[in-house]
Design a protein that fits this description.
elongated, five-stranded antiparallel sheet
Length: about 290
């Protein structure tokens, strides 16, 4: 009776009992419960998804357009009418091609044009900002700003450096300084200069003297001021190569925005050709874009 009572006792809910038996070879085999058998039957009834074998995509080669090898009447490639990027104005813009090596000891005449529609640089506050930035950036990385003149919509500089890297870094830093300072003053954002700076190397004493006349007396050529006075919107008041007793007034309280030249070509060699008169006007030289 005791054995029967043990069989009649209910088993606790939870995991279903699984009978374990040993196989013919002594391995332990577990018998499946009724719930597992039902699940197995359902799995077999479902259709198995059969993967189709991968097929190679057909590559359709596009027929190449036949290019006529006939040469035009004016030649193949090179300079020809209508070739290249269309100009944005009457004058061609400065080339953005990689600059060559800087001739040793040769100063550069650099021109930077202002964007159209902006206020004149020859106003009092604008010129003060330019002088401040010239003073901060006139001697950096080996770059030296020696002379300058400011026009209404551009400015010219004569500068020198021992190599191309020093010249590029100095000019780039100075241009960024000026653009940011002017934008702060005008309360605007965006580009200030219409084009990349243009440069021309002055490789002989004659060219250096002509460059100095062009820069320092540029206001006379453009008729900004009377020809009898030294232009205060330039480095003329600090220039020591004027002919006679020419002197400027009104700049005594200003900080010096330039540095003295270091190389002989800009420092002394040009003086053998004679000092410069405040009334002397230099016309543009042969096609060198900084003089246009």
């Amino acid at each position: 009776m005791a054995a029967k009572k043990k069989k009649q006792q209910r088993k606790p809910a939870g995991k279903k009992a699984v009978k374990k038996t040993t196989g013919s070879k002594g391995r332990r085999v577990t018998k499946k419960t009724p719930a597992k058998k039902k699940a197995a039957k359902k799995a077999t009834t479902k259709k198995k998804s059969v993967r189709k074998p991968a097929t190679k995509k057909k590559v359709v080669k596009k027929a190449r357009k036949k290019v006529s090898k006939k040469k035009p009447a004016f030649g193949w490639g090179g300079a020809r009418p209508g070739a290249g990027r269309p100009p944005k104005g009457d004058k061609p813009m400065a080339s953005h091609a990689k600059k060559g090596a800087l001739p040793k000891g040769c100063p550069l005449l650099v021109t930077t044009p202002l964007r159209p529609g902006l206020p004149s640089l020859r106003r009092t506050r604008e010129y003060e900002i330019l002088r401040e930035q010239f003073e901060l950036g006139c001697d950096r990385f080996g770059f030296r700003l020696c002379h300058y003149s400011v026009g209404k919509d551009h400015y010219h500089m004569i500068c020198e450096a021992p190599n191309r890297n020093a010249m590029s870094r100095g000019l780039q830093g100075l241009t960024i300084r000026i653009a940011r300072a002017l934008n702060r003053h005008w309360g605007r954002k965006g580009k200030v200069f219409s084009d990349h700076y243009d440069e021309r190397s002055l490789e002989t004493p004659q060219e250096v003297r002509q460059g100095l006349v062009f820069v320092l007396n540029n206001a006379k050529r453009l008729k900004y001021r009377p020809a009898s006075k030294i232009d205060l919107y330039s480095s003329g008041p600090w220039f020591d190569g004027w002919k006679g007793s020419a002197k400027a007034s009104g700049h005594e309280d200003w900080e010096l925005p330039i540095v003295q030249p270091r190389f002989a070509l800009l420092k002394s060699s040009w003086r053998r050709l004679g000092k410069i008169s405040p009334t002397e006007i230099q016309q543009p030289l042969k096609r060198r874009s900084a003089f246009d």
